[in-house]
């Protein structure tokens, strides 16, 4: 499949620098007439078109911030009730930006070939759920656009740098342990974990914390990573794997508690458990890693990641970077466990 030509492709075809191509189309700098013609001919041959809007925004500094919530790219509209974390974060980020004299655009990943180039016209970018080897972080570094992330991308060696600049922490370690300890306090002896098959911090690091926690207590770690990490069927499939016919929760390897990162799989797990004759919370306790309307409606214990506060912190940090001032001190403690009926004891 062909990809959209980039300015570097034009420069290569014309035998000039990227700066020369940029000056040819922006009118900045001095470019010889013959060189301009060669650049324009190369652009025409490749089908390259400069983005006039992006150029204008960069020159005029219209105080625009861009928000990239990468998981929204793979979520269907009818699934948004299960991931209202992103809707809450986007709304709060927009209000925080407005209060500071900026406007906020919700955009697709500008690092993708099919992304509108106007997204890169923003003065700064907010990125939620950065992934391993995140291409947008690399792109922002190359073009000099400030970027603040909500959550961390893992380092090359798979570890995490909680003191890294340019990010707002989501406290994965503390919140994961809070959920596990709550399940134990509710009577759980064997906890299984339904995780997302993704490469962001919440998906990867929560599993790491869970495995360490289990090892420290001599508890077997049971992890299922599901590709459809936010769908109801993910929970049903996991229950069928963990609870074979005739199994008894907490006996012979069947868990008596489930930790599901997203709400919809937890709802599916509850339905399937009850079909199998296992009561929730009587026989199996369930907790969710990200609160949502589906979790509240089903009375499921969940983690409120407090996305509004994360958004405010991210916007404040990004604007401080743009203005050349020190970012604000960000004390820990964002995110809390909300106990509900699914872990009652």
TrEMBL record:
Alphabetized GO MF terms: DNA-binding transcription factor activity; transcription cis-regulatory region binding
Pfam families from the entry? LacI (PF00356), Peripla_BP_3 (PF13377)
Alphabetical UniProt keywords: DNA-binding, Transcription, Transcription regulation
So which domain of life are we looking at? Answer: Bacteria
Where is each HTH lacI-type domain found?
Answer: 5-59
Q: Which SUPFAM superfamilies match?
A: lambda repressor-like DNA-binding domains, Periplasmic binding protein-like I
* Gene3D superfamilies per record: 3.40.50.2300, lambda repressor-like DNA-binding domains
PROSITE patterns per the UniProt record, alphabetical: HTH_LACI_2
Q: What is this protein called?
A: HTH lacI-type domain-containing protein
Organism this protein belongs to? Tsukamurella pseudospumae
């Amino acid at each position: 499949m062909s990809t959209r030509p980039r300015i570097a492709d034009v420069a290569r075809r014309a035998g000039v620098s990227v700066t020369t191509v940029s000056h040819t189309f922006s009118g900045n700098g001095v470019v010889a007439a013959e060189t301009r013609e060669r650049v324009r001919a190369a652009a025409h041959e490749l089908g390259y078109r400069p983005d006039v809007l992006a150029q204008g925004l960069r020159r005029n500094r219209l105080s625009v911030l861009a928000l990239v919530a990468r998981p929204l790219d793979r979520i269907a509209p009818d699934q948004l009730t299960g991931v209202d974390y992103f809707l809450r974060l986007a709304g709060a980020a927009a209000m925080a930006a407005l209060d500071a004299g900026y406007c906020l655009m919700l955009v697709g990943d500008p690092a993708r070939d099919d992304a509108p180039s106007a997204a890169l016209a923003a003065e700064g970018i907010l990125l939620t759920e950065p992934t391993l080897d995140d291409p947008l972080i690399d792109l922002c570094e190359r073009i000099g656009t400030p970027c603040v992330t909500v959550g961390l991308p893992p380092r090359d060696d798979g570890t995490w740098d909680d003191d890294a600049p340019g990010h707002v922490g989501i406290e994965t370690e503390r919140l994961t342990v809070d959920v596990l300890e709550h399940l134990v306090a509710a009577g759980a002896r064997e906890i299984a974990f339904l995780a997302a098959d993704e490469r962001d911090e919440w998906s990867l690091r929560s599993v790491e914390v869970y495995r360490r926690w289990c090892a420290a207590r001599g508890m077997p770690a049971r992890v299922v990573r599901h590709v459809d990490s936010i769908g109801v069927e993910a929970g049903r499939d996991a229950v069928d794997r963990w609870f074979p016919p005739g199994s008894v929760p907490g006996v012979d390897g069947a868990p008596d508690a489930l930790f599901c990162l997203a709400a919809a799989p937890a709802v599916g797990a509850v339905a399937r458990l009850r079909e199998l004759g296992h009561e929730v919370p009587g026989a199996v306790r369930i907790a969710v890693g990200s609160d949502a309307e589906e979790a509240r409606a089903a009375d499921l214990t969940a983690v409120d990641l407090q996305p509004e506060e994360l958004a405010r912190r991210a916007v404040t940090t990004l604007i401080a970077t743009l203005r050349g001032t020190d970012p604000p001190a960000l004390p820990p403690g964002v995110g809390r466990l909300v106990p509900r009926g699914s872990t009652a004891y």
